Amino acid sequence: MRINSRLHLIPFALILALASCAQNDGGNLVRTIEEFDEAVTSLQAGDKVTLANGTWTDVELKFKADGLPDNPIQLRAEEPGKVIITGQSNLSISGSHIVVSGLVFKDGFTPTSEVISFRTSKEELANNSRVTNSVIDNFSNPERHDSDTWVAIYGKNNQFDHNSLTGKGNRGVTLAVKMTTEASRENSHVIEHNYFGPRQTLGSNGGETLRIGTSHYSREYSNTIVRNNYFDRTSGELEIISSKSCGNKISNNVFFESQGTLTMRHGHYTLVENNYFLGNRVPNTGGIRIINENQTVRNNYLSGLTGHRFRAALVIMNGVPNGPINRYDPVIDSLMNNNIVVDSDHIQLCAGSDAERSAPPSGSSMHNNIFMSKTNLNPFTVYDDVSGISFE
User: Fold this and answer.
1) pLDDT tens digits, residue range 31-75?
2) How many other C-beta atoms can be found within 10 angstroms of the C-beta atom of residue 7?
3) Which of 22, 209, 243, 275 has the fewest Cβ atoms surrounding its Cβ within 10 A?
4) CA nearest 259: which of 179, 201, 181?
5) 18 closest CA partner among 77, 67, 75, 86
6) Contact 353, 360 (CB under 8 A)
7) b/e map of 43-79 (b: 16 or more CB within 10 Å)?
């Protein structure tokens, strides 16, 4: 079954429709970076700073404010989609109850390591804040192997929704949840209703579309929710989503012709459910890769995936017994149940088995899954002892 390729245009069309709605009340309308810097010095709950329509070139927007839950402080475009931020520019926010909306970054790149940052310094973070209805489009450093992050979420209880991130061409994660200090752990961020547009293969690590944590903090809980997003040919590297922390929930997302996998690389207690992986027989398209303890993969639909080994439709890895924090923890007490895999070429069990990754899965199950294929009637490859996986 081939999914209509026009389907991938729908999320972006919705974003454009949102961008066509003009703001009704002007708030504090600013036309220059000097006016902006002056406006942000004395903000109070309920204030609105509005960037005038037009092109803003070589600006570093620093927005520090503290609103209230029912009366946030807003930074917004005069008309969504008509404030174009170009050149060497970026935006950083800190404080609480801030809403940023309607901005477009294109034709440039950040002069720092982040385009949109939920902090203004290492100590000043954003909490209970939101970035919505905004676009980063091909805003890439021309030096392909110079690394930056398009969106870096720090703090706690932040939301990134109804945005479009497309065309990242240089090294670095498109969107990263940062957990470098205690103030950014157990963060409960929500990343939802976003369009992640095409990303070409980088050819090395550092091309993830979404990363939650790092190996150094992978025993910590992030509790980030990733739901209802559209990943359109996000093929920067093997790991489309790299979950590197505990307690994350990844649900109701669509992965369209993406040449990589949703990878539970580090951390435990990840829930992956109700996602759609639509490969349409494009080479190297993958599904879900399972590593670590107490992972749950259920009710996902995977179709037309051709990837092999670590890019297969379903991959259950072997692990390193008593290994360091940055290696592969064994799969223990994990569930892969009630998934549907259609017309996909490879299911890999105990993948990566070698002298180091010598610990096969244990205490785990694959129950009530459906596998159907016209292209490979025997998709399972077993690399080690699978007695630690129960099959029903």
Assistant:
1) 999 999 999 999 999 999 999 999 999 999 999 999 999 999 999
2) 13
3) 22
4) 201
5) 77
6) yes
7) beeebbbbbbeeebeebebbbbbbbeeeebbbbbbbb
Rounded-to-integer distance, Cα 67 and Cα 311, Å: 45
Chain centroid to CA 320: how far? 27
pLDDT tens digit string along 127-177?
Answer: 999 999 999 999 999 999 999 999 999 999 999 999 999 999 999 999 999
Stretch (H or E) spanning 15? helix 10-19
Per-residue pLDDT, 26: 58
What is the pTM (predicted TM-score) of this model?
Answer: 0.92
- Find the helix or strand (DSSP H, E) in which 88 lies: strand 83-88
Whether residue 320 contacts residue 291, with contact meaning beta carbons closer than 8 Å, is answered with no
Q: Do 87 and 114 touch, CB atoms closer than 8 A?
A: no
Assess contact for 299 and 308: CB atoms under 8 A: no
Q: How many helices (H) and strands (E) does the chain have?
A: 2, 39
134 vs 305: CA distance, rounded Å: 31
Assigned architecture for domain 25-391? 3 Solenoid (2.160)
What would the two tokens of residue 126 be?
């954003």
Phi first, then psi: give them for residue 232, nearest 5 degrees.
-105, 105
